[in-house]
Amino acid sequence: MHNQLLNSTRRKFNKFLILNLTSLFTLNFFLLRKDFPNSYPNKNQKLKWILSKNDL
Amino acid sequence: MILKDNEILKKNFQIVICGSGPAGISLALELEKKKIECLIVEAGDEFYSEKAQSRYVGEVSGNFPEDLSVLRLSQFGGTTGHWGGTCRTLDNYDFQNWPIKKTEIDPFLDQSCKILNITKSFREKNINKNLKIIEFQESEVRFYEKYFEHIKRSKFINLCLNCIIFNIKMSGDTVTEIFLKSTKDISIKAKFLVLACGGIENSRLLLWFRENNKEISKNLPIGNYWMEHPFKKIGTGVGNFNLIRKNFKNNFEKFENFRNWGNFTVSISPTKKLIDEKNILNSGVFLTLHDRDNDNLKNNIKDLLCFAPNLSNKIIKLFNKNLLCGITISSSWEQDAIFSNKISLSSSKDFVGIPHSKLKYEISKNTLRSAEEMVNQIGIYFINNDLGRIAKDQLIYNKESFVSEAGYHHIGGTRMGDNKNISVVDKNLKVHETNNLYVCGSSTFVSGGHANPTLSIIQFSLRLAKHLIERINYL
Ligand SMILES: Cc1cc2nc3c(=O)[nH]c(=O)nc-3n(C[C@H](O)[C@H](O)[C@H](O)COP(=O)(O)OP(=O)(O)OC[C@H]3O[C@@H](n4cnc5c(N)ncnc54)[C@H](O)[C@@H]3O)c2cc1C
Q1: Cα gap B196→B199, rounded to integer Å
Q2: Which stretches of chain B sit within 8 Å of chain A by CB?
Q3: Strands B58-62 and B38-41: what pairing?
Q4: B72: which residues sit within 8 A by CB, 6+ positions away?
Q5: Chain A residue with Cα closest to B395
Q6: At what angle do helices B295-307 and B312-320 cross, to 10 degrees?
Q7: Which has the minimum average pLDDT: B4-13, B151-160, B249-258, B268-277?
Q8: In chain B, where are the structural domains located?
Q9: Could you tell me the end-to-end alpha-carbon distance of chain B, in angstroms, rounded to an integer?
């Protein structure tokens, strides 16, 4: 019983860790993205370019 | 001849014209040629005065600049005291919902161009099936400078300054008395009364006259279907300076350096085919090229390369050859005639007791859709001709309402038509169900197209002169 409990807590912990790593990654990504506008004035984030397939 | 208020009491006038802007003066000049005596009643003075201008304050709600008093001028010569002078005729297809065709005002174009000292040249050239480049003219005429001395010496044009029309008396369908406020209250009579007080005042006055005269029909949509030409930046771009210039180059007189906005400006309009196929409004789009040291260019390039990495080689090459330029796309375009966009009377009054104007104006989704379609079309043209790349501003692709950066062109409110439920004046500019009350100016336009209105206003004034001369000769 104790073992079982231990295992389940571990699994939960693992899950927690994975989730946390993912969110950290996402957060980092988000934070990095948030840094983006420092070199780009906000105005420019608001453009929608008309492009051809070959441009992409 | 300039008359004082007590002098006008002693005379009989065939025609009284209220307002000495381009609409009123052009009409008077044409009557003068036929030796028909008229009186121009002008609310303002020879020059700007705070007092006269104070009558132009008003309430605004919706998507329109707040201060109505800076968007027109109350003085001799009217708003031409500070207008920009850009001129172009309306397009044939702008007349789709009018009771007349453009051919009805075409005969007056020559004379109108002479009044404005401009060349009669409004060329256009299709650049593909959907877009055309168009030519404007720039007038430097201020009506005060050109016509004040002439009118002062005229035997047939009488002018009374600081004289405000504030009411009329009607008997049946006829205006029998005109009430003026000058140094004192006076009343005069005339065979015909013409309101030429500007694109907001014409509605304001007619609404006020109706409150005092049951003879003016309640059903007339006075003040409704009001429009303007919003001016707004709608797009941005990056391109090859030389190629763009080469592509749009032509021999149109006022084409390059239009208003010196940038290094090169080209004016683009939709063709009738595009307007019909996409069901959009008419527009004038101004594409201006800027130097590479323009602040936004660097950021626009970075932004573009984020989305279009394959363009980097091309852009670096252009950059190294000093050929890369920034592009600004601005537009001034037609609005739909919407009943609820209107001038009404405010609860506050000016110093002669006329209620101030109250303007309610909302930009429609169709307005924003039309602007987006134009940027799309220009973007595609740029791709197909390898000129650069164009981007839509957020405001346009999100279809966000905005307040116009201009607010200078005041259209509708006393629109022309055959159907009395949706129009105020008939095709001769006579108020429906009246015998001798006329309105003249852009308030009578059924649609505004995209062209600056004053040239067309003058064409209509000259046409009205012809009609009034015919009526006088018939009497
Ligand atoms: C900043 C600005 C820039 C513009 N640029 C351009 C341009 O580039 N191209 C273009 O085509 N148009 C332009 N316009 C618009 C142009 O000025 C108007 O279309 C034109 O002046 C309208 O002529 P109007 O005679 O109908 O009215 P107005 O010129 O406004 O004249 C009306 C006259 O009536 C008088 N009046 C008003 N009420 C009374 C009353 N109760 N009794 C007696 N008199 C009265 C006023 O004092 C005024 O003198 C611009 C407008 C502004 C504000």
Answers
A1: 9
A2: 236, 296, 299-300, 302-304, 307-311, 375-376, 379-380, 382-383, 389-394, 397
A3: unpaired
A4: B56, B78, B79, B198, B199, B200, B201, B410
A5: A46
A6: 150
A7: B249-258
A8: 5-227+337-363+404-474, 231-334+364-397
A9: 26
Residue nearest to atom 49 of ligand 1 (CA): B78
Rounded CA gap, B301 and B312, in Å?
9
What whole-number distance in Å separates Cα of residue B343 and Cα of residue B223?
Answer: 5
Q: Which ipTM did the prediction report? A: 0.87
Whole-prediction pTM: 0.91
b/e code B334-371 from CB counts within 10 Å (16+ = b): bbbbbeebbbbbbeeebebebbbbbbbbebbebbbbbb
Beta bridge partners of residue B171, listed in sequence order:
B174
Contacting residues of A for B397, CB less than 8 Å apart: 48
CATH, domain B5-227+337-363+404-474, list 3.20.20.210, 3.40.50.300, 3.40.190.10, 3.50.50.60:
3.50.50.60
Q: And the tokens for B380?
A: 């595609």
Extract the tokens encoding B332: 């001034």
Which SS3 state, helix, strand or coil, does residue B388 take? strand
Tokens of B373: 């379609």
Distance CA B33, CA B289 (A): 46
Q: Please report the pLDDT score of residue B261 as a whole number.
A: 53
pLDDT at A37: 32
Residue B165 pairs in a beta bridge with B180
Helix (H) or strand (E) holding B178: strand B174-181
